[in-house]
Amino acid sequence: MREAEEATLQFLSDLVLAGEKRAVIIHGHGSGKVKAAVHRVLAASGLVSHFEVNFQNTGETKIRL
Question: ∠ CA 53-3-61 to the nearest 5 degrees?
């Protein structure tokens, strides 16, 4: 899951540089390991003010910086 964690960190950095305040991360469905890795990074990041699974599509997580 290291790749998912690194990609999430890079995505957050790109969002900050672009001045974006909201985004969606598509982690897909499956075993839940990628989603868990993404959520670990989001929870530990000081950049993210809020995140939640999109309950209309549980393969996505909505984030706010």
Answer: 10
pLDDT tens digits along 17-58:
999 999 999 999 999 999 999 999 999 999 999 999 999 999
Question: How far apart are alpha carbons 3 and 18 in whole angstroms?
Answer: 22
Secondary structure class of 63 (helix, strand, coil): strand
Which residue is listed with tokens 């393969």?
A: 59
- Which residue is associated with the tokens 């959520």? 39
pTM for the full model?
0.92
Domains, the chain, ordered by start: 2-64 (3.30.1370.110)
